[in-house]
# Entry
Amino acid sequence: MSDATAVNYETSIPNNVGLSHDRRVLRALERWHPGYLDWWNQMGPDGFQDSLVYLRTAVDVGAKGWAKFDYVRMPDYRWGILLASPVEDRVIGFGQHRGEPAWQEVPGEYRAMLRRLCVIQGDTEPASVEQQRHLGKTAPSLYDMRNLFQVNVEEARHLWAMVYLLQKYFGRDGREDAEDLLLRRSGDPDRPRMLGAFNEETPDWLSFFMFTFFTDRDGKMQLESLARSGFDPLSRTTRFMLTEEAHHMFVGETGVARVIQRTCEAMRDAGIEDADDVEAVRALGVIDLPTIQKKANLHYSLSLDLFGSEISTNAANAYNAGLKGRYREERIEDDHRLEHDTYPVLSLVDGEAVSVDAPALTALNMRLRDDYARDAAAGIARWNRVIERTGIAFRVTLPSVAFNRAIGTFAPIEADPDGTIIPHETFKTRRHDWLPSSADGDFIASLMEQQTEPGAYAGWIAPPRSGIDNKPGDFEYVRLS
Ligand SMILES: [Fe+2]
Ligand SMILES: [Fe+2]
# Structure
């Protein structure tokens, strides 16, 4: 463990940002801490606050060995302020300040824009904890329960990450923002979370896995573009958040893969070849593949909305200012200013979805969404290999970006999953061929029974291929109180 990246545990808040020499920010965080704990106790995992959970905690932000695993009661988890190591002589990589030294303080002219970026990112983190707070009670195994709680404490740490930036760099405004982040509630009609997908319910474990696959992946893309920020503290914070985010992607992708695997194996063992024979498959106590497809359609379309409108001057301004870059900006071969470039944007022309060239600067949301879609498609290809290996003739597909949208070009129209534009009436009648119905939800809910025997798994999901931290199959990941 090198000193430059090690985490200091001497203050009440673990950190590698020198909080012991920054009394003003330390005091602000200490004043925020009790309200945060109230929020966690009220809105964090319901019924498991006294359980001992085998969690990883960051003890170093270096490339190797940043995590230490141990049994922890979640309210005692060491939420901390962890920034990735500074890059020496870092320069801004895009926009009108390209080539200038990265900023260590907030540039006055961009204060409002930066503050807004921190608040929006910060708001999503506690929202997902709120959405997932009841899932422990129906966990299909202690392994899965532990993974859920790991995701929850890390999302909560991501809130800390944004609160630190707000309190350190945005004065009284930032302190007020930090308070407000504890006041909004997912799904609350009076004070909802800021973005749509974070006000939806996560009623069952298939939703949880889909959420971590699709919605956390939006988070990953946003963090990837903020990691390029010319505001260096934001870049360093998000770079470390991304290392945690990788586990969330893993939980989602392998979670759905294990559901698919169990379903296909049960079908094969029962001699059922027709994946569309929903009744026969459900009678086996597993989730039929068409329902899994419907869940994917829902979570994908909700997550696409998080990218905002295809054409956006806000996105152009944030890029121009050097605050928010593109996915893997440094690997792209162009001038990184985009003043004269174009980008193909899917648009509605005469009732049809066609690609139209738009100024690249205003099309940055569209570009990030395309990068996201490619990233998601790679995961889906891996799900399909699981199906293929069992010989079942079914493939999970991503629906068209025109399908089931509430934001952007396709919000006013309806399309089928192939992207053919259809009348609203047709969509209404066929809705539950493409999106989960309440009956589908009831069926999934009927399978959700908590499994607390170490090494045991609910019948609708296959065990994982290996344990967390190389633990054996019967490891007790959660000691219930
Ligand atoms: Fe997060
Ligand atoms: Fe996440």
Summary: The chain has one domain: 19-479. The pocket of fe (ii) ion (ligand 2) is lined by residues 155, 216, 219, 245, 248 (CB under 6 Å). The mean pLDDT is 95.
